[in-house]
Every structure is written in C-alpha cells, then in structure tokens.
Design brief:
four-stranded mixed beta sheet; Glutaredoxin; 10 helices; alpha+beta; single chain
Length: 202
C-alpha cells in the first residue's frame, strides 16, 4: 500500500480551493504522491467559530484583499477568474454529487469542472440545473446521479465527512492531511504538504 498519500479537503465555495484544485494533480504526480479528494462543508466549521457567513464577508478589508490576491494567483497560473455572485455559493448539491463521482472515473474531473464553472466563469453551482450542465459536459447521464445524490445514504455520507473534517482539526479550506495526520492549511501550503508527504511517507 502506498503511504505517500495526501488528503485534499475542500469546499466548492472556498475561493483558495480553486487554484489548489487546479494545481494539485500535476504537483502530486511530480512528487509521487497519491491525492484523495475529500469534499466537505465549511458551514459547520464557520458556525463553530461564531461566524454566520464567510469571514471574507464579515471583514471587508480581508475580503477585498482576498479577491485581489485570488486575481493575482489566477493570473500567475493562467487560470480564468470571475467573481461569483452571490458569494459564498451554496455548495451542498455539488458536494453530494462529488461524493458519488469520486467513486467513479469522472469524479475528480467533476470537481475541477465545478470550480471552473464557479470561479473561472462566475456562474452559480447551487442548483440542479447547473449540475446537470456540468455532468452532461462530462458525458455523464445527469438524472440518475442527481437522484442518487439526494438519497438518505449519500446525505449521511456528506454529514459524516464534514464531521470527520472537524474531528481532524480542519477549520478552513483548502486543507491537506498526510497519511500520518499532519495538517496543512491554505493553497500556499500545498507544496509544503506534498514535500512532507513525500519525505516522511506519513
């Protein structure tokens, strides 16, 4: 079993998870590290910290900086960027579909396409119609997926994954956890997380 593993925890509504998601595949391949995509919901983490919305909305100076910073990061990476409105987007349905997709060959590409739609094109990701369009572009028949995403089983899986994130000390996204439980937070810690995973094997 390969111990060079990194869990990539993200919420589709998370701004800095966008460049992290776009970068992680190639960087992990180079590092010889296997990446597990782990979608979860940031809402409970925010609530635990007493926040009713994203801190980027609660603290305008911080939010203004973040949007400009994200513009610079995307320009450096030649990634398209458009600010979605409203922000944050409701990521619930996307996360539920991602959990299903990550058991299938199309799962990771679905995650990337959600991020491209939201932060590359500035479009909404919060309804079935948006998800139907993404699935269709990927060649996935939408209706069975949309139906399975709303099953009690799948809803419970997302709740469990979100609770696991809290148990593992995750308070924001993107976060990265090595096989040995080392936690790194933020897009700017991705390379460090991969180096740790590669050098320690744990």
């Amino acid at each position: 079993m390969n111990s060079l593993v990194l869990d990539f925890w993200f919420d589709f509504a998370s701004t800095y998870s966008y460049p992290a998601a776009m970068r992680i595949g190639a960087l992990a391949d180079t590092a010889g590290v296997v990446v597990n995509f782990r979608p979860f919901l940031l809402g409970p983490a925010f609530k635990a910290q007493g926040w009713t919305t994203s801190p980027f909305n609660l603290y305008p100076a911080k939010g203004g900086y973040m949007w400009r910073d994200l513009e610079r990061i995307c320009a450096d990476l030649a990634l398209p960027f458009r600010r979605p409105d409203p922000f944050p987007q409701n990521s619930l349905i996307a996360a539920r579909i991602a959990l299903l997709g990550l058991r299938e060959p199309w799962g990771e590409e679905f995650c990337l396409e959600v991020f491209r739609t939201e932060f590359g094109e500035g479009q909404g990701i919060d309804d079935a119609e948006a998800m139907r369009g993404i699935l269709t572009r990927l060649g996935v028949v939408p209706e069975p997926v949309l139906q399975a995403a709303q099953s009690d089983d799948n809803k419970a899986r997302l709740r469990d994954q979100t609770e696991e994130a809290a148990r593992r000390g995750i308070f924001g996204a993107p976060s990265f956890i090595t096989a040995g439980g080392e936690l790194f937070w933020g897009n700017d810690r991705l390379e460090r997380a991969l180096r740790w995973a590669n050098s320690s094997g744990a």
